[in-house]
Amino acid sequence: MRLYLIRLSGLLLLSLSLLCAPAALWAAEGLVTVKSSHSVNDTADKLKDVLNAKGMTVFKRINHTDGAKGVGLDLRPTELIVFGNPKVGTPLMQCAQSVAIDLPQKALVWEDADGQVWLGYNDPQYLKKRHNIEGCDEEMEKIEAALRSLAKAATQ
Question: What is the CATH number of domain 26-155?
Fold first, then answer.
């Protein structure tokens, strides 16, 4: 019984310390997040429109909230858009073929517990590190700039 109480009090302290931690600690490693001024649906629509306007391929739009409803579960609005451009992705895969596991690109749009909508995507520098990509600095810079631009267009 005593060991149980010690574990329970330790768990309580850990829980309280996590609640007081800065929001940055909650961010997933390698994920760039941008606040949106729109709903999840509108942000995803805007992103899809700008991707199409830029000549990129939108492979799939997945509504995770609908998926959850389909199995009787609740989930705040959450959508994933899978997109890419072989002209950009292929040279990256030529530098480090394992990066293909993270391609095509994905953008996640979700509403947090406070009602704030976010757009997130994989940080190209994280992918560079994860896959030990060397010799593709120019491609990486283009991808970073494009993702920043796409996120800004969809969220403002």
Answer: 3.30.310.70
